[in-house]
Amino acid sequence: MRKLHGVRLPHAKSTAHTPFENLPVPEKVLIPMQMHIGAVCEPIVKLRQNVTVGECIGTSDAQFSADIHASVSGTVTAITEYRPAKGAPCKAVEITADGEQTLCPAITIPTYDNRAEFLDAVHRSGAVGMGGAGLPVHIKLNPKQKIEYLLVNAAECEPYITADDRIMQEKPQTVINGIRRILDVLEIPAAMIGVEKNKPEAIQVLENCIRDEKRISLVPLPPVYPQGAEKVLIYHLTGRIVQPGQLPADANVLVMNVSTICFLEDYFNTGMPLVARGVTVDGDCVKQSRSLWVPVGTPVQALLDFVGCDEDKLVRLVSGGPMMGMCLPNPKYPVTKTMNAVLALSKAKKDVTTACIRCGRCIHACPLRLMPTELEKAYDRRDAAALRRLRVDLCMLCGSCSYVCPAKRPLAETNAMAKTFLRKEAGQ
User: Fold this and answer.
1) Strands, DSSP E only, in 228-340?
2) What is the dihedral of CA 203, 274, 329, 303, to 10 degrees?
3) Residue 1 confidence (pLDDT)
């Protein structure tokens, strides 16, 4: 089987051997009512109400949503409008912490006797995909198609980020138990864990855990970006192709991030919903790169203060990785369920964009063999028909084309604008 193309990146994973440490409880948290794909939650708490850790503070009647829970104990001091760096505004609940971290008395270890009860428990946990766009997990775990393989995405192919790596090194048995639980409940025959070869410690501990496990295998993958992209991972693990307009379930596979699986197993053992997550804090403005366990809603500024950030040098603050991450306008933004890294970066040399030299490197780097230069021309013309014909809808916005372009053309950014243009043309 031929491997899909991509790019070799300097991974700079300086926290790969840095265990998670708990960030001190912040003075305040701001918890958005949408940290997932789907319906926005509505706050179910009031001003000056006391809340406890794990208490549900936001919910929706829509099935395609994920409940929101308090990450600290304290008092609701504001219910305000939150404007995310990307996406539509929503409400957010501000909680002033009391420092006690009192657990919600309603938390109990969930039980289930069948698949429906299992999915209901997952829904109540507030679980969303912790390595991607934030799809509610109870939706992902309920495909209509028969699933032949559970594919565990542990590639973590972006530079800097080691949150999944640390989860595997520190909680390997929890990960494996979580995989077993999903295989059993959903009656999936087998699972494959895809890990890039640049994580030898994680590979070793996981292999030790599955030595006598016939249903679970581990597949070391080349450290080529974007190895962790869903379609790329599916092809490299199974040889199956997810056709345009299809979901992974249409190829009879289910893809889940390793940190998501670990959370679910912890939840079924403790009853604690998704109120905290692992975050890599790194970048050339950081005095000491660290792996932190962070309450959801914590302002990014608290993470920067804890690790020691030279804010005089700070120019770019990124949520996620440098390839597909999102720039934050300021450090007041909160840590969300899907935020796996915070990168504090100084000003880099400004690239000068020149004319395309027709070298074809962008086409060679694209895992899906799209033609970024032709897409750029079609977008400049606002030619919707050409954009559809060139399949801009398949673009994952991985940034490989922009990374290799010697002319420094913003190809991935253009594709993002082209996709938005097509949605507006279609009235979406």
Assistant:
1) 253-257, 276-282, 290-295, 314-319, 326-327
2) -70
3) 62
Structural tokens at position 128: 């969303």
d(CA 27, CA 334): 13
Residue 157 confidence (pLDDT) = 95
Note whether 181 and 152 are within 8 A (CB): no
CB-CB neighbours of 412 under 10 Å: 23
Q: What is the mean pLDDT of residues 23-48?
A: 96
The neighbour count for residue 211, using CB atoms within 10 Å, is 6
Amino acid at 10: P
- Tokens 């001190």 — which residue? 24
Structure tokens given for 60: 């929706």
Angle separating helix axes 258-270 and 163-170, nearest 10 degrees:
50
DSSP letter, residue 3:
P
- If one counts every other C-beta atom within 10 angstroms of the C-beta of residue 81, the result is 8
In terms of Cα–Cα distance, which of 153, 162, 135, 159 is closest to 228? 153
Residue 3 binned pLDDT confidence (cut-offs 50, 70, 90): confident
Judged against a pLDDT cut of 80, whether residue 428 lies above it is answered with no
* pLDDT tens sequence across 185-231: 999 999 999 999 999 999 999 999 999 999 999 999 999 999 999 99
3-class SS shares of the chain: helix, strand, coil, % to 5: 30, 20, 50
Map tokens 């379609």 to a residue. 231
User: Residue 86: which pLDDT band, with cuts at 50, 70 and 90?
Assistant: confident
The C-alpha torsion from 395 through 39 and 321 to 274, rounded to 10°, is: -140
How far is it, in rounded angstroms, from Cα 130 to Cα 291? 16
- CA 201/CA 13 separation, integer angstroms: 13
- What is the pairing mode between strands 20-22 and 74-82? unpaired
Tell me the residue type at 58. G
Q: Which of 7, 6, 55, 59 is nearest to 34 (CA)?
A: 59
Q: How far is CA 53 from CA 16, 23, 272, in A?
A: 29, 15, 9
Give the number of other Cβ atoms within 10 Å of residue 86's Cβ: 8
Which residues share a beta bridge with 93? 31, 79
Geometric angle at alpha carbon 133, from 203 and 200, rounded to 5°: 10
Q: Going by DSSP bridges, is the β-strand pair 74-82/90-97 parallel, antiparallel, or unpaired?
A: antiparallel
Angle at 271 between CA 265 and CA 276, to 5 degrees: 75
The sign of the CA dihedral 8, 9, 10, 11 is negative
